[in-house]
Amino acid sequence: MSLRLYNTLAAAKEAFVPLDPANVRMYVCGPTVYDRAHIGNARPAVVFDVLFRLLRQLYGEAHVSYVRNITDVDDKIIKAHQRTGEPITSITERTTRDYHHDVSVLGCLPPTTEPRATHHIADMVAMIEALIARGHAYMAEGHVLFEVGSDPDYGVLSRRNTDEMMAGARVEVAPYKKSPFDFVLWKPSSADEPGWDSPWGRGRPGWHIECSAMSRRYLGQTFDIHGGGQDLIFPHHENEIAQSTCAHGGQPFVRYWLHNGFLMAEGQKMSKSLGNFYTVHELLSEFPGEAIRLSLLQTHYRQPLDFTRAGLQQSRQALNRVYTALRDLAAVPGAEPAAPQAVLDALSDDLNTPEALAHVFALVGEAHKAAPSQQAAIKAQLLGAGALLGLFAQDPEAWFRWQPEGAETLSEQAIAALIEERFQARKARDFARADRIRSELAAQGIVLEDGAAGTTWRRA
Ligand code: AMP
Ligand code: ZN
């Protein structure tokens, strides 16, 4: 089946046809680095990672460019600095490092390019100059504003009328604006705020222009896919469209707009402002990253996803079943991993990850009953499906030995030494001592499993 994606711009599923199959181009709005990512922020990272993997499979690894930015200039960052006194660059560098750690533990591949807003101020200034030159932007009280009335197509993505736009929380009324919908491209910075020299004085860019300028720099004026959470449709993505098409003399901007649904906690969108969030970091002290990833993929990306700890626990148990099958198949010579057609078809149908996972779990059931002649094929299919979903890539033993981030428990060497001691005790028929070692380990959460090939262990 060829790839079909739900395009917010068309409000329909459409066949995906890239502009240039030799360079398929995708941009996804990345984090604003002022604080740790919560599990809702992780949803777009994981969802668009699956799309990245699928595009690489369909078009070849060298033929997909995935750009995800870092927003490292923003009023939330300035507020964090004012609150704590920590220097701005320290906040943004620390938070960027934490973000990289979190998404890599969630199994996300690094994007092809990860531009930082502060490294692209000149691109933003150039784009704002083009908007002024073309009559789409004006200066007022040290600000440069985009004039929404100058763009007859404004609203194509969110299809809102002006009343609905006014109700949107993020439209800021200010006396210097010609219309309340006009939005900031550039604003003045006071001496203690980060700022750059520009034709309009020392200042800093607005949030929307950052993504327009960085996507233009790395993907060109027109590219294939732009992604982000549904909260970004209006005004962020609407404003990106206005800026980019107007700066480029009407050249089309993005061909397919994709938006993930919200991660919900107790019936509300998880968000920092509501305070109903769990950071990825805190969840990793309770659950393996792969269990978190599986939970995020068990619901279709456009649906709301109810976040619960019980759900994470179930995902962990489901992964125990997969890794048990892979452990049983460990000695089977590896065939080249290849995703089953049913999994590829499910993902090609607008990233239907729940259906793809249902096929994977059916395969796990088959693995238990498989005749030896079928085992290599099943293993190859499981690993191939896993490579597309960003799952099952660990050594099964490492999965069973997972321990929470930051936990202090027995080292692997100490466990191996105790297993050897127990082996010697049993050889000497000192079963009381052997049993004592087993219970001591059990008390520390280490479960021993005696098999034909010797004793293995896992964490309970
Ligand atoms: P932010 O750092 O708040 O700009 O968000 C980074 C990304 O996370 C954006 O693509 C948001 O749309 C997305 N996002 C934020 N909250 C949620 C949520 N509760 N569920 C899903 N996506 C979210
Ligand atoms: Zn953006």
Describe, in plain words, how this protein is organized in 3D.
The longest helix has 21 residues, at 39-59. The two termini are 41 Å apart. Strand 9 (223-229), helix 7 and strand 10 (254-260) form a beta-alpha-beta unit. Helix 15 runs antiparallel to helix 16 (431-443). 45% of the residues lie in helices and 15% in strands. It has 16 helices and 15 strands. Adenosine monophosphate (AMP) binds at residues 29, 31-32, 40-41, 43-44, 228-229, 231-232, 260, 262-263, 269-271.
Question: What's the short version?
Answer:
The protein has 460 residues and is α/β, with parallel strands linked by helices. The protein is built from 16 helices and 15 strands. 45% of the residues lie in helices and 15% in strands.
Considering the chains and any ligands shown, give keywords for the structure.
460 residues, four-stranded antiparallel beta sheet, four-stranded parallel beta sheet, binds adenosine monophosphate, elongated
